Task: inverse folding
């Protein structure tokens, strides 16, 4: 016993009391106040005091141990030693700690149950009671904890710490989960709710309530199908009712439905009902989820409209678009691009090699070399004109392609995007324009030649007339002179017609005899067309007087004749006919051209040549 001193035991009790205060504050979420810090500061002060005071920590050695009855509180352990006035300070300090712990626990009693509160308060009180009783003893005694009903004070304390900490952790976890659940439900963009197995609404999302201007009391506990969201019409009500029934049977339901918004409009909702099963496999809840897709559907419809307009524009302009993945060497083609290539999207293997097979054999190497050159020399874009052969018809078309390259972070080309434009009709029109320009030049040349030739003919005719007068008495020579004059007259008429055909002055409208113009023009064409081309004229119109410009009409007939000649390289027949036609209503022709109702003179020109394809 002499190895222990009352001072050393008191110091250990002070450390225990300070530790207990910190633990209790942690368990009860109590913030340490100034008084608490003061009590904790006394622990090292008493430690220094015990070490520096006379006798040090081993003063007042324990000389005896007695059990002293405190009545109903049981028995307490009393340690006897040398008289030490400091014992009263130690006892008062320990009592203060015990009272402070009990007070802190009582202030935080709202966070604990009754059992927890009792387990937290009993240990400090079990220490305080014997200490207060011990104040009545002499300064030779140090009083310990009761050994009777309160002998298990330390056990209570340990049990209280375990239970309270577990309860605090559980409650904190539940609060956290509740907070997270509320955050998901009330801050998300979708609509959410929870139904019991009978289909009654038990949890409602704030946004869902706000959307219809309802409060929880209006919907909680009601059958879900009877709530304000689904009572806009009987069809919607029945649909939701049936969906809830199927979900309660274990099916997952998802569909699009409308419900009324508080602003009076309707909202399209992507809605689902999902059963939630417990550990026993039985359905405990139905999870109701919805998402307002009104804006998405409007955006999708606008996108589809834009795609239709783009596809129509591409079809009208014969302009398709494509995209080539360089790594996979595969194309993505627009509908118009498929039409230009004459390919079926379901059967066409849209690879780079398949594209080259569509290119005309004479242009294939040039197209492939141009594309590879643009990649090798890091060109940003390239364009090329080439021919292709339509897969479905074998028809040769002329296209203009333009391509731009997209590069990755390393600078290499990862994708090529381009357009393919069918310019066959444009090329044919350009060729016809060149032919027309040639005809204009030929007309100008013919006019010049006719002018010079007419001057020569004037001299020949004049000489022939003089000669005719001088040989009038000689019949044979007179006939020769008449033949010369007649031939000169015919040649003069031909040159006059050539000069009229080549005239380039402004239009001069007047009344013209179309049959006469046809006859004069045919005479010119006979000198132009080959001998294996027959010209047949069928003039059925009784009156062929029209209002027009004679050179323009002659030029049009002459152009048709020349085109017919080019279409009949081995000979054939050129037909010209006229007839009168009456239209009681407007006649709609191609290219949005309309002929008003009335009486018209029709000139038809046809031939037996190969003709033009349907695209022209």
Result:
């Amino acid at each position: 016993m002499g190895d222990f001193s009352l001072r050393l035991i008191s110091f250990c009790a002070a450390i225990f009391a300070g530790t207990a205060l910190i633990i209790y504050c942690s368990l009860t979420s109590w913030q340490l106040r100034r008084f608490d810090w003061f009590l904790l500061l006394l622990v090292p002060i008493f430690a220094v005091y015990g070490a520096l005071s006379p006798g040090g920590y081993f003063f007042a050695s324990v000389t005896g141990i007695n059990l002293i009855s405190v009545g109903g509180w049981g028995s307490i352990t009393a340690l006897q030693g040398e008289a030490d006035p400091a014992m009263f300070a130690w006892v008062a300090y320990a009592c203060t700690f015990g009272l402070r712990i009990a007070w802190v626990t009582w202030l935080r009693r709202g966070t604990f149950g009754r059992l927890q509160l009792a387990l937290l308060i009993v240990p400090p009180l079990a220490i305080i009671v014997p200490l207060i009783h011990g104040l009545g003893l002499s300064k030779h005694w140090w009083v310990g904890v009761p050994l009777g009903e309160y002998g298990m004070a330390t056990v209570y304390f340990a049990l209280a710490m375990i239970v309270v900490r577990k309860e605090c952790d559980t409650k904190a976890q539940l609060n956290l989960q509740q907070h997270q659940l509320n955050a998901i439900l009330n801050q998300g963009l979708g609509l959410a709710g929870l139904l019991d197995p009978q289909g009654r609404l038990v949890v409602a999302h704030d946004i869902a309530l706000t959307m219809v201007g309802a409060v929880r009391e209006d919907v909680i506990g009601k059958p879900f199908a009877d709530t304000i969201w689904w009572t806009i019409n009987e069809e919607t009500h029945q649909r939701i009712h049936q969906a809830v029934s199927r979900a309660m049977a274990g099916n997952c339901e998802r569909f699009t439905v409308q419900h009324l918004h508080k602003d009076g409009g309707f909202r399209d909702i992507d809605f689902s009902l999902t059963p939630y099963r417990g550990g026993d496999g039985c359905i405990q809840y139905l999870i109701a989820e919805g998402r307002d897709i009104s804006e998405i559907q409007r955006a999708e419809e606008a996108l589809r409209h834009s795609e239709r307009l783009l596809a129509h524009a591409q079809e009208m302009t014969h302009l398709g678009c494509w995209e080539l993945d360089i790594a996979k060497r595969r194309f993505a083609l627009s509908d118009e691009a498929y039409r230009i290539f004459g390919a079926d999207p379901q059967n066409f293997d849209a690879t780079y090699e398949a594209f080259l097979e569509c290119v005309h054999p004479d242009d294939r190497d040039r197209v492939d070399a141009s594309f590879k050159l643009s990649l090798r020399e890091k060109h940003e874009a390239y364009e090329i004109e080439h021919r292709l052969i339509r897969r479905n018809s074998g028809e040769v078309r002329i296209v203009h392609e333009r391509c731009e390259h997209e590069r990755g972070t390393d600078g290499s080309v990862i994708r090529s995007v381009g357009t393919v434009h069918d310019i066959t009709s444009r090329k044919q029109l350009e060729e016809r324009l060149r032919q027309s320009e040639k005809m204009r030049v030929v007309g100008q040349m013919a006019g010049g030649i006719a002018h010079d030739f007419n001057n020569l003919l004037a001299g020949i005719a004049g000489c022939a007339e003089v000669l005719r007068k001088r040989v009038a008495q000689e019949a044979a020579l007179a006939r020769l002179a008449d033949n010369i004059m007649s031939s000169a007259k015919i040649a003069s008429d031909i040159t006059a017609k050539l000069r009229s055909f080549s005239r380039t002055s402004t239009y001069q409208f007047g009344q013209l005899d179309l049959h006469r113009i046809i006859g004069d023009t045919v005479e010119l064409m006979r000198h132009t067309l080959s001998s294996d081309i027959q010209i047949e004229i069928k003039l059925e119109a009784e009156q062929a007087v029209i209002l027009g410009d004679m050179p323009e009409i002659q030029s049009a007939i002459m152009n048709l004749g020349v085109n017919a000649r080019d279409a009949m390289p081995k000979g054939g027949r050129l037909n010209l006919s006229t007839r009168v036609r009456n239209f009681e209503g407007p006649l709609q022709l191609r290219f949005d051209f309309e002929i008003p109702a009335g009486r018209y003179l029709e000139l038809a020109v046809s031939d037996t040549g190969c003709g033009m394809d349907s695209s022209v």
